[in-house]
Amino acid sequence: MRAHALSLFGIYHIQVDSSTSGETIPKENYRLAGLIVEAPKGEVLFKLTGPEYTTRVMIEAFVAMYKNIKKTQ
After folding, report:
1. How do the residues of the chain divide into helix, strand and coil, expressed in percent and rounded to 5?
2. d(Cα 31, Cα 43) in Å, to the nearest integer?
3. What torsion do the CA atoms of 62, 65, 67, 72 make, to the nearest 10 degrees?
């Protein structure tokens, strides 16, 4: 299936609590890797977010996951 890939590096803001205060903690050197897969019944989003080193280690498994996606009836 067709997919669109995204990879961003930067500062990730983690919400402090579930309240509506909007307070966040900035985490530097984070990465977001994403795939939007065009599935038969709509798009499906897969997202990998974490420290740059961790996502670099995990990116091969993330891509392998996409390569193993199969259409079902």
Report:
1. 20, 55, 25
2. 22
3. -150
- What φ, ψ does residue 63 adopt, rounded to 5°? -70, -40
21 pLDDT more than 90: no
Q: Is residue 72 part of a domain?
A: no
Q: Global pTM?
A: 0.73
Task: Count structural domains, the chain.
Answer: 1
Query: Which token pair is 5?
Result: 């890939």
Mean pLDDT of 16-24: 76
Q: What are phi and psi of 69, to 5 degrees?
A: -70, 135
The pLDDT of residue 64 is above 70: yes
